[in-house]
Amino acid sequence: MIDLELVRHTYEKMTDAELAEFAVKDAVGLTPSAFEILKQEIRRRGLDTWLFDSVEAQSRSYSPQEIDSFCEVIRGLPCPVTGKSDQRLNATLTVEVKSFFILTQITQKIVIASPRALTQANDVAISNSLLLGLWGFPWGPIRTIQAVIVNSRNKKNAKKEEPSEHLRSYVSANIGQILMMKGDKDKLYQLLKMNKANS
Description:
Helices cover 62% and strands 11% of the residues. The protein is mostly helical. Strands 1-2 form a two-stranded antiparallel ribbon.
């Protein structure tokens, strides 16, 4: 049983920016009661009502066709890495391994860019893993080989005509933001640039 007063108190403690970010990015799986409390708090503060749409977007399920339609919006944007519009965007997963004695660290990132930039991202992840990943014992060499295999496989998928599973995964995880910005390509492009900066 959810303590609704605790939920209300949590929302009340958030700043306007924190509440808006929560509504846009992290409202997946809210119960109807928590959603209603969130709406009340948004209304009480006089925040933009489009935040309701963003929360609702995260709370419903989408068909593969709907996800692909959002992917197509993303794919028509300029590349956030090169700034060029000569290739349709897609996404890849890069895996990098870094080791230091007994410590082995694995970093996975979804990169959205043109096929050329995606191939380059996977190549860089392979090079970095081979250069920095082998030195940990016992997991360094094992994880490095796994990273090379995953990056090599994903490199081949970068040039596919259809949206990659990684792009679909990104769209599904960010559906609230994408729906909110769907009609504004500049804002969507900035969202992708932020994803690049954070990756």
